[in-house]
TrEMBL record, chain A:
A Pfam entry, by short name: Cation_efflux
Entry membrane topology: Multi-pass membrane protein
Gene Ontology BP annotations: intracellular zinc ion homeostasis; zinc ion import into Golgi lumen
Protein's organism: Phoxinus phoxinus (Eurasian minnow)
Family listed: Belongs to the cation diffusion facilitator (CDF) transporter (TC 2.A.4) family. SLC30A subfamily.
Primary localisation category: cytoplasm
Catalytic activity from the UniProt record: Zn(2+)(in) = Zn(2+)(out)
Keywords: Cytoplasmic vesicle, Golgi apparatus, Ion transport, Membrane, Sarcoplasmic reticulum, Transmembrane, Transmembrane helix, Transport, Zinc, Zinc transport
Protein known as: Zinc transporter
Keyword presence, Membrane: yes
Cation efflux protein transmembrane domain location: 38-298
Membrane spanning stretches: 37-57, 69-87, 99-121, 141-159, 241-261, 267-290
Cellular compartments annotated: Cytoplasmic vesicle; Golgi apparatus, trans-Golgi network membrane; Membrane; Sarcoplasmic reticulum
Molecular functions (GO terms): zinc ion transmembrane transporter activity
């Protein structure tokens, strides 16, 4: 039979279809609770920023325009968090043997850096305004900043209640608490952000650091099916995003307070002082997130294992046949996933398999599931 | 302190920039120019970038491993580069925002002569910085020794390969544990709490055969070290260089803008009725139109409006240039921090070549990542036949990795178990309680099984009920030799264990 048509599209290789790719990304975003929340909040923030921008242009108010730019800046932080939460779920391949799970740590770190930069910027603007007070139109700024405050409160609510209903393991909390116990007092009234937990059991559910809101269906940090998924796998991302939202809320609160002060008491100096105070608060609140991310990125020994590891070393050295334990290196891949390598100097007649399995057992009990033990037989 | 050239340069530039920042702030207060003040804050961000780079360099010098940071602080330089790149990107965003603001509301320059003066001085400072960092961003800083790698190896690009070979074999027997120690410095709990330098001396003793070898061996590690340190600090210096470049471009734009402004713009003079059509004030314009229509005076117009839009346009061009040059740095440092396999290593090929090695049955969980610069770390599980052959295999694997340029490896041996898919020889355990089922394989070969139909291997692995009958006889042979002559029950139990494990 002769061909009825000359369409040979099906024989051509599939073209790069942007729509297909985008829809694939959408599905991936909507699949996970964290990224879903991030995406919706990003849309909300973006639309509000556009509304503010258009209102500012229409009413020719420079203050509103610059405030809308500040919101756009925040949207980039949300975008980074969203991108990281999608990327960290990709499978490992030839170039990324551990997968992309470190992306969330990196996103948290970059968010922290952006926050510090924002604080620095606000501080400099505050100084500029203190030296040369511009003409601020309060009547237009007040309702818009109240609306912005409402949007941010929605965000805080969403990201605080993101993660209830999953079992808290003492181990995971030990990880987060040990860093924050020595923390500088924040001085801000939020309390959600308050790492004020004296008890190391971590049974208070109100300690939301932005929630561990992600589904446990797919193991986050490792493809190994035997590995129970890290409950705080998106912890870094959410913490960064949460801090950003808090910073924005503080900004709105500061603007409202200074507007009220200026209207009632005609204190022109209130605006710059509020800005500087807010900048300081933001800077201080970012420090824990930065310290944690820097620790992870610098391949530091996991803080939660600081006390457990020497015990483990002792136990391993007491195993029969082990002369010595050398060069232990333990580091965090992402939240709650620890990787370790060490070398054992053993006697020539030692049972290597037994030693290996015992060592693995010892370290699995403290939570290190990926361990590489190199056995070196001492020459007699 | 070693590594002084980099630190010295950074310190120099830091002092210069900070001094200039102070000058700009003072001048801006004197001339009450807001633009100067904002430019001075850009200078301040430059100072911060330099401080970050300095801190990173200072930290990265401590390559000794500590209790908390077992790899030392080498990664600090990559982090410094990332921080600088992110700061630059954020700065670019703010500049874009300011430029857009200027587009909607153009400003005149207040005192263009002062601006030119300060801008030119800033340009000088930045050009000096560029010269300082440009030549050395590409390497040349001398790494300091932390004991060195200990040996160069065949396949490495140094020319002294052939001569060093002889020393290698002597060193290799000790070298397995040593490279990583040398790499990351002494670990505090290490029993070989020997000073790295002393260990080097130990190697010299071993290599007493050839004096030339000694010298070559002594110098080679230093060169390797320089390379390693260089490519890590390269990243950091690149970040600083890009920051200074951005600032230089900013100064160039300021100067160009001020010059054009002076020559082209005709400002509104005092005392004359003058309109500024570029800066739009709707109400004021309307009033002025009404009033001027009434008075019939000549109204001067302030100079060509496009001059006011030159500043934001140039700023946007500068931002594009900056982003284009910062992106590779950002990508590179981010990839290192994401634990990527370094780009010069092909995992697939490495994997297959590793599998081709003699004695290696399987490779899994192979992970290769870059600590910083040229320090690459690899970990893997290698499946091999038995512990006795393992030491040879381990040496060969280490050599293989050294040839690839990976000096810090941790290989976990996995021994073939009874239930493995490969049907190679399964007898690897030392003879303890599980001796009997294992010997069933090994004892078959010398001793003919009564049931000659079954193959020796099949006896051990098949799950058919013929096992008890066949192995019972072989086990009878065994039970004479085995010390614990338990009854037939325990023998049967053992065989059942074997079955289930199969």
């Amino acid at each position: 039979m002769l061909p009825l048509s000359i369409k040979d599209d099906e024989y051509k290789p599939a073209k790069f279809n942007l729509v297909v790719k985008l829809s694939g990304w959408f599905r991936s975003i909507l699949a996970d609770k964290t990224s879903r929340n991030l995406f919706f909040f990003l849309c909300l923030n973006l639309s509000f920023a556009f509304v503010e921008l258009s209102y500012g242009i229409w009413s020719n108010s420079l203050g509103l325009i610059s405030d809308s730019f500040h919101m756009f800046f925040d949207c980039t932080a949300l975008l980074a968090g969203l991108a990281a939460s999608v990327i960290s779920r990709w499978r490992s391949n030839d170039s990324f043997s551990y997968g992309y799970v470190r992306a969330e740590v990196l996103a948290g770190f970059v968010n922290g850096l952006f926050l510090i930069f924002t604080a620095f910027f606000i501080f400099s603007e505050g100084v500029e305004r203190a030296l040369e007070p511009p003409d601020v139109h309060h009547d237009r700024l007040l309702p818009v900043s109240i609306a912005g405050l409402l949007v941010n409160l929605v965000g805080i609510f969403v990201f605080q209640h993101g993660g209830h209903g999953h079992s808290h393991d003492g181990e995971g909390h030990g990880h987060s608490h040990s860093l924050f116990n020595g923390n500088v007092g924040h001085g801000h009234s939020h309390g959600e952000h308050g790492h004020s937990h004296e008890s190391k059991q971590g049974h208070d559910h109100g300690h939301s650091h932005g929630g561990h809101g992600h589904s446990h269906d797919d193991p986050h940090c490792h493809d190994d099916p035997s590995h129970t998924p890290g409950k705080g796998a998106s912890k870094q991302i959410l913490q960064g995003v949460f801090l950003h939202i808090v910073a924005d809320t503080l900004g709105s609160v500061g603007v409202i307070i200074s507007a009220i002060l200026m209207q009632k008491y005609d204190l022109m100096i209130a605006d710059p002082i509020c800005s500087m105070l807010i900048a300081l608060l933001i800077g201080v609140s970012v420090v824990p997130l930065l310290r944690e991310s820097i620790g992870i990125l610098m391949q530091r020994t996991p803080p939660s294992l600081d006390h457990a590891l020497p015990e483990c070393y002792q136990r391993v050295q007491q195993l029969q046949g082990v002369y010595n334990l050398q060069e232990p290196h333990f580091w965090t891949l992402c939240t709650d996933v620890y990787i370790g390598t060490l070398k054992l100097l053993v006697a020539p007649d030692a049972d290597s398999r037994w030693l290996l399995s015992q060592t693995h057992n010892i370290f699995t009990q403290v939570g290190v599931r990926q361990l590489y033990v190199q056995i070196e037989v001492a020459a007699m | 302190m070693a590594c002084a050239p980099n630190r010295l340069r950074l310190l120099c530039m830091l002092l210069l920039t900070f001094g200039f920042f102070i000058v700009e702030v003072v001048v801006s207060r004197i001339t009450s120019s807001l633009a100067m003040l904002s430019d001075s804050f850009h200078m301040l961000s430059d100072v911060i970038a330099l401080v970050v780079a300095l801190v990173a360099v200072r930290f990265a010098e401590q390559t000794q491993s500590t209790n908390k940071n077992t790899f030392g602080w080498i990664r600090a330089e990559v982090m410094g580069a990332l921080v600088n790149a992110v700061f630059l990107t954020a700065l670019c965003f703010t500049i874009i925002l300011e430029a857009i603001e200027r587009f909607t509301e153009p400003h005149e320059i207040d005192r263009p002569d002062v601006v030119i003066g300060v801008g030119a001085a800033g340009l000088l400072v930045n050009l000096l910085g560029l010269c300082l960092f440009h030549g050395h961003a590409g390497g040349g800083g001398h790494g300091h020794s932390h004991g060195g790698h200990g040996h160069s190896h065949g396949g490495h690009k140094k020319h002294k390969n052939g001569k060093v070979r002889r020393c290698e074999t002597l060193e290799d027997s000790r070298s397995t544990g040593e490279e990583t120690n040398n790499l990351v410095g002494n670990h505090n709990n290490s029993p070989n709490g020997v000073n790295p330098e002393r260990r080097m001396a130990g190697k010299y003793e071993m290599c007493h055969s050839d004096n030339v070898d000694l010298q070559i061996n002594g110098s080679a590690p230093y060169e390797e070290l320089e390379n390693g340190h260089d490519s890590a600090s390269q990243l950091n210096m690149r970040g600083v260089f890009l920051h200074v470049l951005g600032d230089a471009l900013g100064s160039v734009i300021v100067v160009i803008n001020a010059i054009i402004f002076i020559f082209v713009w005709t400002p509104c003079k005092e005392g004359t009725v003058c309109e500024n059509p570029c800066v739009g004030h709707y109400c004021a314009d309307h009033l002025r139109n009404i009033s001027s229509a009434g008075t019939n005076e000549t109204v001067f117009n302030a100079g060509p409006c496009w001059v006011l839009y030159l500043d934001p346009t140039l700023c946007i061009i500068m931002v594009c240039i900056l982003l284009y040059t910062t992106y590779p740095l950002l990508k590179e440092s981010a990839l290192i921090l994401l634990q990527t396999v370094p780009k010069q290593i092909d995992m697939h090929q490495l994997n297959s070549r590793l599998r081709d090695l003699d004695g290696v049955l399987a490779v899994h969980e192979l992970h290769i990542w870059q600590l910083a610069g040229s320090r690459i770390i690899a970990t893997a599980h290698i499946k091999c036949q038995d512990p006795t052959s393992y030491m040879d295999v381990a040496k060969r694997i280490k050599d293989f990795f050294h040839n690839e340029g990976i000096h810090a490896t941790t290989i976990q041996p996995e021994f073939v178990t009874m239930n493995s898919e490969s049907r190679a020889s399964l007898c690897e355990l030392s003879c303890r309680t599980q001796c009997a089922p294992k010997l069933c394989c090994g004892a078959i070969d010398p001793a003919k099984p009564p049931d000659g139909a079954l193959e020796p291997k099949k006896l051990c692995e098949s799950k058919t009920p013929t096992i008890p009958s066949a192995s019972a006889t072989s086990l009878e042979i065994i039970s004479e030799s085995v010390e614990d002559t338990s009854g037939a029950e325990s023998v049967v139990i053992i065989t059942r264990e074997v079955e289930s494990s199969l």
